[in-house]
């Protein structure tokens, strides 16, 4: 008899988030560790603090997405929903809601234009 092969769950789940302009991206794990940061030289014009703040914001977004992805992988492998809840892994809808909330709270510059 053949046993059904379950997909293997990786030790680390990762996701990528990008800023609106696509000039900065952060890949982070479901544990909140940024593992790759890419940005264009033009990001320097906003200053070090603004760049650091944006990296942290994108790291948080990537972490939420990676946690939701990890929940889906574990659920596919038969882990009960109550255990996934106890692990603090959000459902896809919870992740979307949290990311939307973060986007609503984002008050960063949306244009290079300024009032005269």
Automatic annotation (TrEMBL):
Lineage, top-rank taxon, reads Bacteria
Q: What is this protein called?
A: YbaB/EbfC DNA-binding family protein
Q: Where is this region: Disordered?
A: 94-116
Q: Which organism is it from?
A: Nocardia fusca
């Amino acid at each position: 008899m053949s046993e059904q092969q379950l997909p293997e769950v990786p030790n680390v789940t990762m996701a990528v988030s990008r800023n609106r302009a696509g000039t900065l991206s952060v890949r982070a794990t479901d544990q909140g560790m940024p593992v790759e940061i890419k940005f264009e030289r033009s990001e320097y014009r906003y200053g070090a603090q603004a760049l650091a703040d944006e990296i942290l914001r994108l790291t948080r977004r990537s972490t939420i997405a990676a946690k939701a992805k990890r929940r889906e992988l574990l659920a596919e492998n038969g882990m009960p929903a109550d255990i996934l809840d106890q692990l603090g892994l959000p459902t896809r809808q919870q992740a979307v809601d949290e990311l939307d909330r973060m986007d609503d709270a984002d008050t960063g510059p949306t244009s290079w234009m300024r009032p005269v």
